Amino acid sequence: MAANVQDAIMLLGDSLTQGGWEPNAFAQRLSYVYARKLDVINRGFGGYQTDWAIPVFEQVFAKQHEQQHVPKVRILTIWYGANDASPAPSPQHVPRDRFKANLSHLVQMVTSPTSAHYSPDTRIILITPPPVNTYQWDSRVFDVTKSYAEAVKEVGLKEELPVADIWTSIWEAAGKDEKSLSKYLSDGLHLTAEGYDIVFTSLIKIIGEKYPEVHYDKLQNVFLPWDSVDFANPRSTLGKRDAMLA
Question: Residue ranges of the SGNH hydrolase-type esterase domain (predicted)?
Answer without folding.
Answer: 11-198
